[in-house]
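--- STAGE predict ---
source: upstream dedup step, 1 unique chain passed
mode: sequence only
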Amino acid sequence: MLTCKHVTRLLSESEDRTLTFSERMGLRLHWLLCSGCRHYGEQLQVVRMVCHHLGDREDDSGKKKLSP
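--- STAGE serialize ---
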């Protein structure tokens, strides 16, 4: 079974690459047993969503803003 350290690394890597089938299954199994990693994954999704939203913002002239 994956360790919490391995799970958090995979969650970060999943932003840059597609995880393999065995990695995804390992994550799901670990999440069934570890609420801390499950919560970390949920928080990471929120951070990604907020960053994506901020990156899509436009200023009054219709130009995209890079910072809030």
